[in-house]
Structures are given as structure tokens and as C-alpha cells.
Amino acid sequence: MSSALLGLTLSILVQVPWVSGQNFGGSGSTTDGFSWVQPLNTTILGQYGHSPAVYPAPLTTGKGGWEEALAKANAFLMQMTLDEKANFTTGQPGPCVGNTLPIERLGFPGLCLQDGPLAIRVADYSSVFPAGVTIASSWDRNLIYERGFAMGQEFRAKGAQVLLGPVSGPLGRSGYAGRNWEGFAADPYLTGVAMEKSILGIQDAGVQATAKHYIGNEQETQRNPTYNDEGIITFEAVSANIDDRTIHELYLWPFANAVRAGVSSVMCSYNRLNGSQACQNSKAQNGLLKGELGFQGYIQSDWGGTHSGIASVKSGLDMDMPGGLGNYGLINDGHSYFGGNLSIAVNNGTLNESRLDDMVLRILTPYFFLGQDKDFPSVDPSCADLNTFSPRSTWLREWNLTGERSRDVRANHGALIRKQAASSMVLLKNEGNALPLKAPKSIAIFGNAAGDDTQGFYNQVNFEYGSLSVGGGSGTGRLTYMVSPLEAIKTRAAKDNALVQQWLNNTLIATTDVSTLSIPDTPDVCLVFLKTWAEEGADRASLDVDWDGNNVVESVTGFCNNTIVVTQSSGINILPFADNANVTAILAAHYTGQEAGNSIVDVLYGDVNPSGKLPYTIALDSNDYNAPPTTAINTTGIEDWQSWFDEKLEIDYRYFDAHNISVRYEFGYGLSYTTFAITGNITIKAANANARVTALPEDLPVVPGGNPALWETLFEVCATVINNGSTTGETVPQLYLTFPNSTPAGTPPKQLRGFDKFSVTPGQTRDVTFALQRRDISYWDVVLQQWRIPEGDFTVFVGFSSRDLRAAVTLNALSA
Ligand code: BGC
């Protein structure tokens, strides 16, 4: 029996006997009078690793601004037949990565769902933007929005109503996870902001955003079940076993931001959560997402992530993607757990039609809300040609592809991408002001990431030669061009009439005495370009740079005492060469998108003053990290893939801080060509001086994002930043909170709860104000099932990284 069905037999609608007048226990009501109740007592709530049942699926109310769109959706629904409704909830093979059927008689064109989080992947003449981890490193709300908006414009112009991104699962529990680069930061606060800004940007361009992968999708290994030749499951998908507090304070947190931003869709993930497939986990979908967070849109499955019909429907899943029934669902044969099966279920009484209606309404409402019923471009026919996922041979019907083929949708986005990637670069080391370069006359370039790609631009695996500007899998992009670092440096160096020579073979460099490589003059600077591949479907085997990069650096530094290393990486790299005195600078560029070389050169030559900050921690040794992906399960039990998130809240810097472990470069760290300081004291003022702050939020009706009281700003923290260096630059003041001693054990020593980014000229001071919302200063009380502000003193730190805290002040929130 599947876990969800098992859950059904235990189905509980717990009443809350001993609590009155207070919305304890995760109970609530929506405006149509529907009430949802989540179990309170921890026995029912389930032991760690068990997912309690939460039924029924909450109905949409349109609350939070979608009321008018919901009314239109309702009017549309009234005209639909049962079969039309059932088919509305499933995908079918067609021109896009995901397709829903048109209903021609009602003028509905069907939905085109396209990957992914950094580009419209299955399309030509479109742009490849910086990856999630890259733009998160900018810590720049405006840039994140700008990137989302520009991507949304391209999706719209290509006829895709739905963009399959942004990503906040994985969050980055482990640096080894193969898809961290698609997401943002190993911190819920920064990721939450990035989700919100991305979604607002995408949806302001008229395209539905999809927050994915919900939830606990923190590794690729065994993310899906293993099947034998007869199609029988031999191993269930890995189960991410996460306790209630950790879910709320880490993994659910950014999804709450996404729902608050009005995200249209949420994609449930492949893995199991606490023993139950994520896409049929009623606690996660009915309880947390639609209940507690008041999500009004639709939950779609990851591709093949649906493993049942009615159990999933009752557990809150609204759309089966891509609609095939094969293993992993990847045989897109047009059969679906949903579709016709739901008509049968309604007719035989297994499924109440009101649930099917709600599924349809949830899918239709964002469509009307974003005005997609008016003048939306048709799917570009070239998308169908490029779609290897459901090629024409698999189609079950003709798709009417009209409109211009191969539309060029790139506009001026190349310039934006160049700027975005440059603003995201993290300068990790800069000894003796090695950077910016000062018109060097002789430049030696090393490393296989410097030059042009030699194996084409799309669908390569970890290729040896060429600049790496994007990772692999569904989150990749189809480059129309890529400016390599070598090309960009040659162009720039020509202005100085400089000599540029290159050695791009890592094996040769790593195994040769570089002084024997016929380098005519001692170069002014040696630039080493290294890369690190990551892709969907596989976790990283190592945190080192690829292609023997560490030895490449050793070799070059044996010859060159001004060696500057640039990494193009999916995320965390251990950088043993950072101690090498001949390595004068290290620049982490991450996956830059199509303008790679230009963005890097802008920073190297100082046209852009670096301002990126690490969205994760770089440890001294890979063994210093905790919480690796679960691998090497050597037993044969079908349930044996269990991943216990025993570290609870201690991921990334929270772990290093809790255990006082020295690190190489901490979360939030990044250098500039100038320097900044906090001047004067930091001050705190209550947002509402007349109201006393209560430990628990007022019990307000849930809106998208949850109880609105959680988003209320309670305190404002002000600090002043000065640029005490000699160049104009952008700074990122950061606010970290230490919770009072009364907070339950396991609370991390410091947690990011505010940041801002702005430019300051030399000698200038600028004030920064951080707004602390109720959620920011609360912990999740597992007994009360409520966000609670603890008694006692918080310490509020302001500084320039998680370990560079320049000023502090205490705050007793409850007696302020
Ligand atoms: C990925 C999703 C993606 C989907 C469609 C899945 O394998 O996990 O992120 O959107 O494929 O390509």
C-alpha cells in the first residue's frame, strides 16, 4: 500500500480540545468557511520520519488579489464537461516540455510549460541568464527582479505561459547536491528573498512562475524509485526525513515567500518526504502549502513524480506532469493517472467532483489573473522541433502551431546578463591589490575553462575544453553564443597592446614544469580558469575543482608569482591553493550565462567593482562539512533509502558557527576594490511604538503566505555604512540575529535576517534600514504549532559577512 493510502486509513481531522480562542495547532479557516486542522499532538503529528495525514484538500478562495480572476475561472468552469475538466489536470505529449490540452470550443489554447530556472531551454534565439546561485551571490533584490522579468519576457514571446522555476529545493543542505546551482543560497532568508523577487519579475512579465521542487529535494541520488525490468519498484525514492521545526525554519521558509509573492504554481518533488511521496504527501500539500500558507495556485508534479491517482488528488496534487504512466512517467504515452481516470473516479463516486473543480479553478485562476486569455503569443513552432522530451513522433494529436518560427526574443538581454553576472562575482582573495589589473603588457592564460567550447553548446556532459557558463539537465540553457574568457581578454588586452598567450590543456599544465613551456617573457599576470560541473540526476563526487584544477594552480604558481584564479563553478569548491602566496587573487564567477568572458573581464579590469558575496560557506576541508547526501545503501529493503536530516537547523554556516569550526571563506563574505565600515551605533525602533509585541501572532485569516501577522514589520534596525576606501563600490550590509537563551535547543548561533545593497562613493556615508518582520524573530513552536517570539534578549549584529560582524545591539522584543 502506498504511504499516502496508508495515511488515508489513519486519516485524522483532529479537533483541538484544550485550546480555545487561539489559533494553535495549525488550524484555520478560509473565507469560504472551509476549515482545516492539522494534528497537534506529536504522537499524531507523527514521529520524526512519519508524515501525518491531512485531509481534505483546501479549496481555493482567490484570496489575496485573485478574486476577480477566480470569478472568471468559475464562469469558465461552468461551461466545461466532466471530461474536459479531467483532461485539464494532466499533461500530454506536445510541443513544449509540458502541455495541457486546448479546449477549442471555449477558446482555451492549452498551457505550454517550459524549463527552466535560467533560460527557456527548449527554444532557439533566446538568452541564457546567470544561474540561481550566481544571481543569489549578487545579494541584489533589483537585479534578481530584473533577471526574472527579462526571462519572463522571453518565455512569453515564445508562447510559454508557465516557467518551470525558480528553485528553492534544493536549498543547499549539502554542497554535493547536483542541483544547488539552480537554486539560490544555503540560507532560507536569502533564498526566500530571491524567490520572491524572481517570481514578481516573471509574473510581472505575464508568465506563471513555478516554485520547485517541493520539498526536501536535497539530493539527486535515488531521487526517484528504482524499477526492475517488469516495472516493479525495487527501491522507493529516498525519503527526506525532516522534523517539523526544521521544515518550517529552513525548507518551507522560502516557499512561504513564494506563496506570498503570488506564485502561480508549485512543483512537488521526486523524493519522499517523511516516508510519503512528496506529490501525494497530504501533510505537505494540504496541510502546509494550501492550509498553513494559503496557497491559491496549483500543485503540479515533477515529471513522473506522480505515483497514484486518487491518493495524490486527495493529498492536494492538482496536475499530473507530463502525463505519462511509464517508469518515472518518462514514457510519455499520453496515459495519465489523472485525465480519463478522474472522470471514471467521479462517475463511480470515488472522487467528489468538487475536488476536481477545485483543481481546475486553481489552474485557471493564475491564467486569468495574468491576463493570459488576452493576446498571448502562440507557441513558437521551433520549440516543437527542439523538443526531444516529447518529439512529434510521440504526439497523440496535432498541435496547431501557428505564428512566426524561430522568433528572436533576446532583445537587449545580453547587456543585462553581462551586468548581472559581473555584479554577482565574488572576489575571495586579493593580495597586494593584484586586482584590478593595471594594463598588464604580458598576460599568460591557463586552464581548460578559458577558451571556447569545443563540443557544442547544448547537452554536453562534463566536457573538457571550454568555458562553463551553465550546468546540465533540465535547468540548462541553449546558448546562442558564449563569450569565452579568452576571447574577452584578447579584446580587452588589445587596448593595451598586450601580449596574450594561452595554455588550455589541464593535463599538460598540471604535469609540466610551466617554465619549460616556451613563455617568452615573465608574464605580468597569469590567469588560471578552472571549472566545476554539476547536473540534474547526479550529485557531485567531490568539492574540488574539476580537471585536476588544484594541480594546475600548483604548477602555474611554481612559475608565476602573480597567479589569479577564476572559477566557473556550480557552487562550493574547496580551495587549497588559497594559502599559496603566489596566488594573489581568486574570483568565484559561478555559472555566468552567455556573457561569461565579458562579465569576468569587467571585474578583472575594474570596470565593475566586485560586490558579490558567498551564498554558502567554503570550508577548509571537504571533511569539515556535515549532512552529505545519503548514498551507498547496500541493503535490499524496498524502504531502505532513508535520509535523516539529523543536523536539523545546522546546515552551512549555522553548523560551522554552532561547532566553532574555522572556515576558509564564510557565508556572506566577498571583497571589493574599496573598503567599508559601520560607523556609529546601530539603533532599533519599534515599528508601532504604541503596541506591545505579543509572543504569538494575532490569529488572522490566512492569505497567500500564511497568517499576515507573520509578515508585519515589528522593528526597524538602522545602521550607517561608510566607504573608507578610495573607489566607488557597492556594499552589502547584513543583519544576523542571535536568538535569546530561552529559545529551544538547536537554535543556530546566528541567522541572517536582513541585507541590503547599494553603492557608496569614497568618504560617503549611507544609512541602511533593516525591517524585522514577526517571522524573522520567531521560532516554530512544535507544540503550539505556531511561530513564537521568545522571551529575553536577542543580539542584533550588523556587519559584512556572517563572521565579520561590526556592531551589535540587544533587543528584548517582548518588552520593547
Ligand atoms: C526536473 C524538473 C523539470 C522537469 C521537466 C524534471 O526532471 O526535476 O525540474 O522542470 O524535469 O523538464
TrEMBL record:
Family matches, as Pfam families: Fn3-like, Glyco_hydro_3, Glyco_hydro_3_C
Subcellular localization, as worded in the UniProt entry: Secreted
EC top class named in words: hydrolase
EC number annotated for this UniProt entry: 3.2.1.21
SUPFAM superfamilies, per the entry: (Trans)glycosidases, Beta-D-glucan exohydrolase, C-terminal domain
Catalysis performed (reactions): Hydrolysis of terminal, non-reducing beta-D-glucosyl residues with release of beta-D-glucose
Gene3D superfamilies documented for this protein: Glycoside hydrolase family 3 C-terminal domain, Glycoside hydrolase, family 3, N-terminal domain, Immunoglobulins
InterPro entries documented for this protein: Cellulose_deg_GH3, Fn3-like, GH, Glyco_hydro_3_C, Glyco_hydro_3_C_sf, Glyco_hydro_3_N, Glyco_hydro_3_N_sf, Ig-like_fold
Hydrolase in keyword set: yes
GO cellular component term of the entry, any: extracellular region
Domain Fibronectin type III-like: residue ranges: 731-802
Coiled-coil residues: none
Signal peptide: 1-21
Molecular function GO terms recorded: beta-glucosidase activity
Pathway assigned to this chain's UniProt record: Glycan metabolism; cellulose degradation
Keywords on record: Carbohydrate metabolism, Cellulose degradation, Glycoprotein, Glycosidase, Hydrolase, Polysaccharide degradation, Secreted, Signal
A biological process term (GO) from this entry: cellulose catabolic process
PANTHER family the UniProt entry points to: BETA-GLUCOSIDASE, BETA-GLUCOSIDASE G-RELATED
Record's function text: Beta-glucosidases are one of a number of cellulolytic enzymes involved in the degradation of cellulosic biomass. Catalyzes the last step releasing glucose from the inhibitory cellobiose.
Family as reported in the entry's similarity comment: Belongs to the glycosyl hydrolase 3 family.
Record's protein name: Beta-glucosidase cel3A
Organism, as annotated: Ophiostoma piceae (strain UAMH 11346)
